[in-house]
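Milestone M4 deliverable, item 7.
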Amino acid sequence: EVQLVESGGGMVQPGGSLRLSCTASGFTFSTYAMNWVRQAPGKGPEWVSAINFRGSITYYTNAVKGRFTISRDNAKNTLYLQMNSLEPNDPALYYCARGLGAIATMSGQYDYRGQGTQVTVSS
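Output delivered:
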């Protein structure tokens, strides 16, 4: 059974940082691209970032480019999202999602997702 479990969310002040983690199990993590997706209250899901199976290719939506960094540790079956310079538009439920194959894309397509971790930005 594919399982994705996120952690690391919380409340930070504007300009602050958080590091999200996603621990994967039930599949060969190192052979799949992975994504981060976020959903703010009252809005639809927004694709945030993707990374290929090897961790050598990454993509970001324009809203987070230069502030967020996606990475992965295939030995630990873990995906990360380092979020710096958090802004008032960033609060959302952030969840990781398994891509459809090894290649990362900006399509936001996925087949499994985790329950998510909440990020709040407040002064």
